[in-house]
Amino acid sequence: VVVAALMEALDGGVVVCDGDGTVVGHDDAATRLLGGEEGSDWAGTSVFEFVDEPVFASLRAGEEGEDPERRSGDGAPPSVLASTRGELLRWTARGKQAGLVVLQVQRQPVEEGHGAVSHRLLRDLIESMRAPLASVRAAIETMTHYPAMDAAAAEQFHRIIEEQAVALSETLEAAVAAYARFYREARPLETVGVPALARTLAPALEEETGVSVSVQAPEFPRESQPGAADSSGDGGGEAGGLWVQVDVAAIRRVVVFLGRRVANAVRPEALRLGVRRVRSVAALDLEWEGAPVTTDRLNTWTSETLSWGDTIVEMSAADVLDHHDAQIWVQSDADTARLRLLLPLA
Amino acid sequence: MSRVLIVDDEPSIVAPLRFLMEQQGHAVTVLGDGADVLPAVREQRPDLVLLDVNLPSRSGYELCEDIRNEPGGEDIKIVMLTVNSREVDVEKGRALGADAYITKPFGIQEVIDQVEGLIG
Asked: Does B10 contact chain A (CB < 8 Å)?
């Protein structure tokens, strides 16, 4: 019963063994993945028929906490890639139940993953910058070391520096464009209600800025659906389905980044995330009482490279906004200043 | 006076390298295409080759191996200059016979030190 319940609960193939590696049960998906005939029953046989003993030992040790290295930083279960009958499979330990070791088996795609693409783009960027940087550095250092060089040589080195500086800029631009293309393909947009988005953003914004953040969002009818007509009828109403398609993590990154810049620049006592419909788009306003920031300053902020966690290659807020077909600008009225982020409705 | 052969297709890096080697008192020849290297090596018998890895026609790795296989080629000092900075790249260069492996961008003193350490 326990084995059946385990196999029911997990995706992909499941193999359940005792601590010595004797198979207690497996599902049909595991049979297919491991190359068995339909209806095969491997109960009582050794799992080492399918996975090497050290791999099994490693998975079991990681699951039992004997080998903390086996667990990833985010607490993901121990997982190992192993070749089984010529196919690359991912074996993941899914816990011990009643003394049984539960192993999940999944086919491992061999195509280049997003992480690999990101890594390759970074490596390409680094390597493509090395040559022009080498020329610039060599030219500068040579001029410094040989200040008495003749005018023709000095002129040649000046020209090298100038040309290679341009080459560096172009390389960087090309890398940003390549990453932006990758990002568009790699980061799918998900449908979310803007009030919910604002409520998700507020705690992160508060934590990063150290300023209290409130959310001012309209009532959001439970029955509203993405793509539904605006129930207010006038296009400017408070209600209606404010659904947008966003990469939540990226938008959060942008809003928190800009919030931090605002907090440092104008020292507001509090921030407010306002949600409203503006004709056929949704507005997410980052508001405060006090002086507005200038458009030039906002442009500078949005062109800065965003940083987030340990991600090495990143984009600017402008890139993220472009990805969402979004716009942002500065607004102010009476005592309230705001950055207005406009997102197209889903 | 030692003979130094610079093999690099990028004029912007060749100019300072040539200048530096000449300042060190070496006779310098420059080639930009890997296909021209072996004939030049046979004809000029350089003491040292500053060899870029990414070249038209033939890669610096191949050329390094070819030079080593030439009669007397084991006596020629080879310094590879490259944008490939991974440990595997460095190891490949060394395995194919490079005496030194310098990653771009480099300080000119590093190049001078390496060259003078090998043929000074």
From this structure: yes
- What pLDDT is stored for residue A313 in this prediction? 39
Residue window 27-56, chain B: list those with CB within 8 Å of chain A. Answer: none
Q: What is the pTM of this model?
A: 0.51
Q: Is A171 exposed, middle or buried (0-12, 13-18, 19+ CB in 10 A)?
A: buried
Choose from A141, A144, A150, A158 for mutation: most chain B CBs within 10 A: A141
Full strand arrangement of the beta sheet holding A100-107: A23-26, A13-17, A100-107, A87-97, A79-84
Whole-angstrom distance, CA of residue A90 vs CA of residue A80: 6
Residues shown for chain B: 120
Listed in sequence order, the residues at least 6 apart from A191 whose beta carbon sits closer than 8 Å to its beta carbon are A226, A243, A244, A245, A346
Confidence (pLDDT) at B72 = 92
Please tell me if residue B110 touches chain A, with a CB cutoff of 8 Å: no
Of the candidates A189, A181, A187, A188, the one whose C-alpha atom is nearest the C-alpha of residue A120 is A181
Three-state DSSP string of A215-244: EECCCCCCCCCCCCCCCCCCCCCCCCCCEE
Contacts (Cβ under 8 Å, ≥6 apart) of A150? none
Q: What is the CA radius of gyration of chain A?
A: 28
Tokens coding A207: 């934590």
Number of Cβ pairs < 8 A linking chain A and chain B:
63
Q: Is A190 on the interface with B (CB under 8 A)?
A: no
Q: What is the DSSP string of B42-96?
A: HHH--SEEEEESS-SSS-HHHHHHHHHHSTTGGGSEEEEEES--SHHHHHHHHHT
pLDDT value at position B85? Answer: 76
The ipTM value here is 0.79
The token pair that represents A64 in the structure block: 């039992």
**DSSP secondary structure, A136-193, as one string:** HHHHHHHHHH-TT--HHHHHHHHHHHHHHHHHHHHHHHHHHHHHHHHHHHHS--EEEE
Residue written as tokens 């950055």?
A339
The shortest C-alpha distance from B48 to chain A (Å) reads 19
Would you say residue A205 has pLDDT above 90? yes
In this structure, are residues A93 and A59 in contact, taking their beta carbons and an 8 Å threshold?
A: yes
Instruction: Give bridge partners of residue A71 from the DSSP assignment.
Output: none
